[in-house]
Amino acid sequence: MTFYWGNNRRFNSWSTYAQNKFGNRLQKISVNAGFSCPNRDGNISYGGCSYCNNEAFSPLYCSKTNTSITEQLNEGIHYTKKRYKKVDKFIAYFQTYSNTYAPIEILKEKYKEALSHPEIIGISIGTRPDCINDENIALLQELKKNHIIFLELGIESCHNKSLKRINRGHTFEQTKKAVEILSSKDIHITGHLILGLPGETREETLKQAGIISKLPINSLKLHQLQIVKGTKIAEEYLKNPKDFNLFELDEFIDFVISFLERLSPEIFIERLCGDVPPRYNLGISWGNLKYDQILSKIENRMEEMRTYQGRLFNPSQ
Ligand code: SF4
Questions:
Q1: Which domains does the chain have, with CATH numbers?
Q2: Is 20 exposed, middle or buried (0-12, 13-18, 19+ CB in 10 A)?
Q3: How far is the CA of 308 from the centre of ligand 1 (A)?
């Protein structure tokens, strides 16, 4: 069966789209450009988001000090080529902290260093909704003339009570504004969302599929809440685990399928769950399965259920 997005996968997979558009598998290579974050340096707060431990989410080579972007890309590309034989197209992923939060000359220098690498065909920039401004949008538009540019935006939740609970330091209204501006400038937006935040019922978490579908975003990365060592949320969890409703693997598979069913079929799916290294995980273990193994389970379950992304999507709701 061929679905709305033109192939037989049961969700609108970003990697399948990218493979068709750019040829072979397109792989993002994480880099740490040494940026900061306004939610950590005191501009918004000193505490940071309560779940944040950048070390846990970044490859080891990104944590070395004094390593240039070029050196990190060399190392990341070398490792990726060994792991995935068919990969030959690479995007530099500015992943660590807030990668539009610096004077414009610094941003220009860092992005251009990545783009000048002979094996890099574009950049993906991770940032916060409140770190988008006219100046950095103009820079992205300029770079977009000759390169692939993606902007990854930490939405994390559509519910202000949850954003407050995790100390994000911005509201969902700010997210909507940033998304509208970026979209009006034709910049590809990948939203990030955390499923299962404390204080949210499953119904409230699920309702976000409809809310997200109304935003003019292009792609989505979903993560289940993971309790990462060294974070504020880990302290809260250890003090009061009953306050949390973490997903067991089987429950998550069914939940994320329900989410996909309610999501617009037009949104590309870049990721369906997080896979923090087991040594950092303080919450529920999913048996140390790798991302691709969990993805297969989700796709097999969708096959069994004969369901697909957008099956219950209602554009008028
Ligand atoms: S998650 Fe992102 S925005 Fe939040 S504290 Fe960490 S780097 Fe800053």
A1: 14-305 (3.20.20.70)
A2: exposed
A3: 32
